[in-house]
Amino acid sequence: MPVTSGVPWFDDRGRTVNAHGACLLRQDGRSYLFGEYKTDDLNLFAGFSCYSSADLVNWRFERIVLPVQPDGLMGPGRVGERVKVMKCPSTGRYMMYMHSDNAGYTDPRICVAVSDTIDGEYTFLGELTHRGEPVRRWDVGTFQDDDGTGYLLLHEGDVYRLSQDYLTAQELVADGIARGGESPAMLKHDGTYFLMFSQKTSWESNDNFYLTAPAVEGPWTHRGYFAPEGSLTCNSQCTYAFTHTTADGDVPIYMGDRWSFPHQASAATYVWLPLHVRGDTLAIDTYWGAWDPLTCRPAEFTGREADVRFSSGTTGDGIGIPFTGSRIVLVGRSRPDGSYARVELTSTDGTVISSIYVTFYSKVPDDGYRYVSPVLPRGDYLLQVTVLGEPTEWSDKSGERFGSVGTRVVIDRALVLD
Prior knowledge:
418 residues; Tachylectin-2, Chain A; 4-stranded antiparallel sheet; globular; Jelly Rolls; 5-stranded antiparallel sheet; 2 domains; 2 helices; mainly beta
C-alpha cells in the first residue's frame, strides 16, 4: 500500500489521522507521529496527538499526549501549534516543544513538556528560556545532530543550541538567516545541513525555500526553491524532514501540510515526498500522488473503474456511488474555485462508517487523488458526495482575504478495490 498525499488518512479506528504541523520519531521499529489535534470549527488548542506505524501507511492512534491544560499557556482559549519531540540523550527523557499563543496571535511563547516514554502523557513544564528570559517566538522546529546535540529552529531563521538536558535554549548559534521565513525544518545529508522555510501567507501554500551550510552555526547560503517554482511546494507548507531507510539506502523525506481552514480536522491533509539530494542541492523533482515506502518510487492505485463524473458548485448537489469491494478511491480536481464536499461512507443497512469533509480547493489546480477510503471488509457500500456550499476562506493579521473563490466539487472517476 502506498503513502498517499493530499487525501485524508485513516487510523486503526477508522478516524482521520489528526496530527498537523507534525514531527516523526523512530523507536523499536515503529514511527511515531506527533501533531496538532485540530477541530473542524475553532482554531484553538485541542491537544497534541501521537500515532504510530510500522510502514508509514497504517497508523495506530496512541493517545492525546498533551491534553488541554486546566489553565495557563496551554489552557482553554489558547493556540497550540508546531509540536516537536526529541529524545534527550543525557537524560533519556522525551522533550516536547511547542508554540503557545492567544487567539489573536499577540502573545507568542515557546514552551516545553516532558515524558519518560515516547507515547506517554507529557507533563507541561512552562516556557522555554534563553539566559533566563522567555523565548517569545512562534513557528518552531527541532533538529538533533548525529552527536545528540539538540537545536531549536524558529521563524526568521534563528537557531538555538539547547542545553545538555534540553530544558533551556543555551546559545543562539544562527541569527535571522531567513528573514520572512516560517515553519522551519532541518535535515542533514552527507555532511551538509539543509534548512527549509515557508514564506508567510497564513494558511495558504507558497513556494518554500531552503538554505545550506557545512555546520549548524553556518555560514548559511540561500539556495532558492526546492520544489518546482509556481507549484506552491506541491500545494503544501514544510513542517519536518526525516530519514527513511530502504533496501537501496537512506532517503530524506519531506513532510508538509495542506491546511484547510476552517475544517482542519477532516480536510487538512499531508504531503509526504522523497527529497532528492545532489551535493548541496535539495529538490522535489516531481509531485507523486502516491509512492511505495519500500522503494521510494511512485505508485498508483489500481482497481475497477466506476462510471462517475460529477461537477457542481451548488449547495446540496451530490452523487451516490454504490460499490462492492473493500475500498474506494476518488480521482478529481482541486482548483481555485473548489471547496468542501461532505463524503459519507455507509453500509447497505444505512450504518455510517465514516463522514468527513474533503476539500477540492487549491490555489494551483491539481488533478489527482482526492479521497481514499479506509480499508473495509469486502462487501456492499455506498459513498455519498455532497457539495457543502461553504468556501474555505480566512484572513491574515492584516485583514487580507485568502482561500477559495467558489464552492465547486469536481470528481472525474472512481476506483473500486477488491
